[in-house]
Write a structure and sequence with these properties.
Two copies of one chain form a homodimer. Chain A is of the alpha+beta class. The first copy, chain A, is 27% helix and 30% strand. Chain A has two domains: 138 residues, 60s Ribosomal Protein L30, Chain: A (2-Layer Sandwich); 147 residues, Alpha-Beta Complex (Phosphoribosyl-aminoimidazole Synthetase, Chain A, domain 2). Chain A contains seven helices and 16 strands. In chain A, strands 7, 8, 9, 12, 13, 14, 15 and 16 form an eight-stranded mixed beta sheet that branches. In chain A, helix 2 packs parallel to helix 5. The longest helix of chain A has 17 residues. Chain A is globular, with a radius of gyration of 20 Å. At the A-B interface, strand 2, strand 3, strand 4, strand 5 and strand 6 of A face strand 2, strand 3, strand 4, strand 5 and strand 6 of B.
């Protein structure tokens, strides 16, 4: 407990929200939660570190807060699960204005309210400098129904929700224009695809799933690695985000991060929209290992994971 | 994912251990866990931040790793629970030698093995400098049996396990002697009191409980605050740690942190040892609010929370 922490905890406690599954929340050694019989527990943790995942002079505080929780909720979506509760560990340096922290929490809690996820605990600490936040999200899924990365089989279709590359393209614009702040239109607010993930789980429609947080090429490689398969995707089928009505360059849609769309495999032909979110069929799983991209010219080339490194100060 | 992270994740995956309750561990979007019917879930998160909670030139890497997990396990003990799984989010700066990180993990995993707690997931990230670790520990407790901070009633006895003030006294010696490293004898290795906590839960013997991580005066104040009561404790009854056969000054036992003993209340007279750990009866809960300390001179004085601020660089 350091100076200012008590006020911070009280502030979080006031806005944290309630849930019948949270038997005891903030204010004890542990939170106590109810897990319904017949369901298994999902757990994910994600760091948000200043000057690694965001820059205060580039990203707005509420966007950073929203993205922080999106990362956790998106992991729950990628298992086909329902969120149960979130926990926030927050370390704050003396260089952070209290108003910035307020707006960070506001962005995070706005998204929590949208999906009715209670903030049930966490930790606060002083940091030497900047903000370090670790978000923990718990969720549940019916027993044996979690959609893993390891279930893809040769011949299955590869699908992706929404559109890709928007975040990476915006960041690139910013770097080139040297503007002082990313203009985050609502179009590019991170959206965890919880409804789509649950539909896929309820309909046993996906054999393997991951969320696109590191970029399509990297995350597809994770599915291939865990499922011991390969993949071929078509450039023309990859849904590219649009900025000022123009689709972003293919490179951003292939290797950009921070998209939080769902990437999954299925033996079935699925509807064009699931839970209100457009779906694109972009390729097929292959028996031969490695990834291939069929270009706009119809030629198939080897595709390597793009190695998206989040954002880094040069 | 940044350079070196893949190797780190693989290293953790190899040593992480298994458990029948971990259905899917490291290597997917979420870990999948089984929670037995009839039990409720406990969740705790704790930050460990370089130059806030430890200093690399003062604390050994394995001690920092052990303390990191101890904080989480001790919170589970303070609810009377059993640990289910741990999750480690680890951010590492370029200034940290890989050997140091290895020894940090070794200290943490040694304690995990001691209590058969599987490391079921987490996150890794680059940090601008130093080490930031967030440990998440999940546990379970029979439904309705979690021992909260809010159950203390006037007239009940106040107990504490083990001895207090050892960590604070050692740190003070170090500051004064300007030695380069704390000589951590095994005597002062943090010990989460899981066996004692579970005994108290199984025997419905404790009405309120907390672990002494911020110091006796601060943690007793938390019980009083949440239970809407006061407390009187006797200086002569407080079990003080011994260094070179001499008891540490009362001040360290009252206000020092990092002890990880259990502080609890009970209407019953309890044995002198529980699960192998000595027990001391140090006072009683009072109806009148506020805390009082009866000194060695028999005089009762007001006792304020000591406001232990962890370790901070001056």
């Amino acid at each position: 407990m350091v100076a200012g922490e008590k006020q911070l905890i009280e502030r979080i406690r006031r806005v944290a929200g309630a849930s019948r599954d949270v038997v005891a929340g903030i204010g004890d050694d542990c939170a106590v939660l109810r897990v319904n019989p017949g369901r298994q527990l999902l757990v994910t943790t994600d760091f948000t570190i200043e000057n690694v995942h965001f820059r205060r002079d580039w990203h707005s505080a509420d966007w950073v807060g929203r993205r922080c929780l999106t990362r956790g909720l998106s992991d729950i979506a990628a298992m086909g699960g329902e969120p149960l509760a979130a926990f926030l560990s927050l370390a704050i340096g003396p260089d952070l204005p209290p108003k910035w922290v307020d707006r960070f929490l506001k962005g995070l809690l706005h998204l929590a309210a949208e999906f009715r996820v209670p903030l049930a605990g966490g930790d606060t600490a002083q940091s030497p400098a900047g903000l370090q936040a670790d978000i923990v999200v718990l969720g549940t899924v019916p027993r044996g129904k979690a959609i893993l990365r390891s279930g893809a089989r040769p011949g299955e279709y590869i699908y992706v929700t929404g559109s890709l590359g928007g975040s990476a393209a915006l960041l690139n614009q910013l770097k080139q224009s040297r503007r002082s702040r990313v203009a985050h239109s609502r179009q590019f607010e991170p959206q965890p695809r919880l409804g789509t993930g649950q539909w896929l789980s309820n309909h046993a429609a996906a054999s393997a799933m991951i969320d696109v947080s590191d970029g399509l090429s990297t995350d597809l490689d994770h599915i291939c690695h865990e499922s011991h398969v390969g993949a071929t995707i078509e450039a023309a089928s990859i849904p590219r985000a649009r900025i000022a009505r123009l689709p972003v360059p293919l490179e951003f849609a292939l290797h950009g991060g921070d998209d939080y769309e769902l990437l999954f495999t299925s033996p079935r032909v699925l509807p064009a929209k699931i839970a209100g979110v457009p779906l694109s069929r972009i390729g097929r799983i292959t028996k031969s290992r490695g990834m291939r991209l069929i270009g706009p010219d119809g030629v198939s080339r080897s595709l390597k994971p793009g190695g998206w490194q989040h954002f880094r100060r040069k």
